[in-house]
């Protein structure tokens, strides 16, 4: 199978073969030039135009244009251009004079013709090469940016998973001491959560139903752990289905609500979770009561890295397609996350 490189080179060879055949035939039939002399004249044009064109395309463009040294590139391009014109005049005019065409082709008139002819080939080759280099450079930059983004997302996700695992194991440990039967049920839910993280969270997006199932297990586990000390209102509207989202984006907000919910003995401690979906807008609203005297600073609400982690993931995945509003006032911490799905 012919390689792309070999095919590309053959195109160049074919182009110049056609070029030589055309100008040889044109000179023979238009001016009655003998075939050998006609071919020699075409070769002189090839050396001048081909040499300057390839010098510009494969030396000047990669070394100076792609390096954004536009001033040096312009000066050298003009120098190569004029050198090609002078070479053409130095080689072709003596041949014309030898064949007796000096009256038809004077140096002054030929100079203008040589300028125009070399201009077309030189700037055609250089222009095509410059465009190709620009496209390849942009493509490499896009691939590098994509790779960087994917690596960063994997790193961020790797930070999230141990955070969840630690809290879940801690919850089970507490339940084992309080109620072994509840702990057994929670352990089964925890196994489902682990299975989800290990086998289903590697995709860029997952069906929202799977994320909700994971959320349901987490909320159920927290309700068992908190018992009657926290009133939990958990609602998923029927419309929340049939679309995909990035995995493990909504869990940190819910986890935060249970982690920092108030522990009042004289009034209610509440956690509210609402998921809704309308006109391709997915919304998560999470609120919890807080003890204003004990609540940690906002920067520490997610164990130091959680909030910035989630914000960074949102910026990478849903840049320009999400809003995150956080309000911490009047004894309540409230988060509203809106994501425009595709």
UniProtKB/TrEMBL annotation:
Entry keyword set: Coiled coil, Kinase, Membrane, Transferase, Transmembrane, Transmembrane helix
Species in which this protein is naturally found: Chitinophaga agrisoli
UniProt entry tagged with the keyword Membrane: yes
Molecular function GO labels: phosphorelay sensor kinase activity
Gene Ontology, cellular component aspect: membrane
Name of one Pfam family that matches: His_kinase
InterPro entries in UniProt: Bact_2-comp_sensor_kinase, HATPase_C_sf, MFS_trans_sf, Sig_transdc_His_kin_internal
Residues spanning the membrane: 12-31, 37-61, 73-98, 110-131
Name of this protein: Sensor histidine kinase
Coiled-coil portions: 132-159
Domain Signal transduction histidine kinase internal region residues, every copy: 152-229
């Amino acid at each position: 199978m012919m390689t792309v490189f070999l095919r590309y080179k053959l195109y160049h060879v074919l182009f110049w073969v056609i070029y030589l055949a055309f100008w040889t035939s044109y000179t023979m039939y238009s001016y009655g030039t003998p075939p050998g002399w006609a071919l020699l004249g075409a070769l002189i044009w090839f050396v001048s135009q081909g040499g300057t064109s390839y010098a510009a395309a494969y030396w000047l463009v990669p070394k100076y244009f792609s390096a954004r040294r536009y001033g040096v590139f312009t000066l050298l391009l003009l120098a190569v251009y004029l050198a090609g014109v002078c070479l053409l005049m130095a080689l072709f005019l003596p041949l014309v004079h030898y064949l007796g065409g000096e009256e038809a082709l004077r140096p002054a008139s030929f100079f203008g013709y040589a300028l125009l002819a070399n201009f077309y080939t030189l700037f055609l080759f250089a222009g095509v090469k410059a465009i190709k280099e620009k496209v390849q450079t942009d493509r490499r930059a896009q691939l590098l940016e994509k790779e960087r983004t994917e690596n960063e997302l994997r790193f961020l996700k790797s930070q999230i998973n141990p955070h969840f695992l630690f809290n879940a194991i801690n919850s089970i440990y507490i339940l084992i001491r309080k109620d072994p039967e509840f702990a057994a049920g929670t352990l089964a839910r925890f196994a489902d959560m682990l299975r989800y993280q290990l086998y289903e969270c590697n995709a860029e997006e997952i069906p929202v139903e799977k994320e909700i199932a994971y959320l349901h297990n987490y909320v159920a586990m927290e309700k068992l752990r908190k018992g009657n000390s926290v009133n939990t209102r958990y609602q998923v509207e029927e419309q929340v289905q049939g679309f995909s989202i990035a995995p493990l984006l909504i869990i940190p907000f819910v986890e935060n609500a249970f982690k920092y919910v108030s522990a009042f003995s004289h009034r209610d401690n509440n956690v509210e979770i609402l998921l809704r979906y309308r006109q391709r807008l997915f919304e998560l609203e999470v609120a919890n009561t807080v003890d204003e005297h004990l609540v940690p600073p906002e920067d520490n609400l997610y164990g130091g890295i959680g909030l910035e982690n989630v914000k960074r993931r949102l910026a990478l995945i849903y840049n320009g397609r999400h809003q995150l509003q956080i309000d911490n006032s009047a004894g309540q911490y409230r988060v509203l996350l809106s994501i425009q799905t595709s």
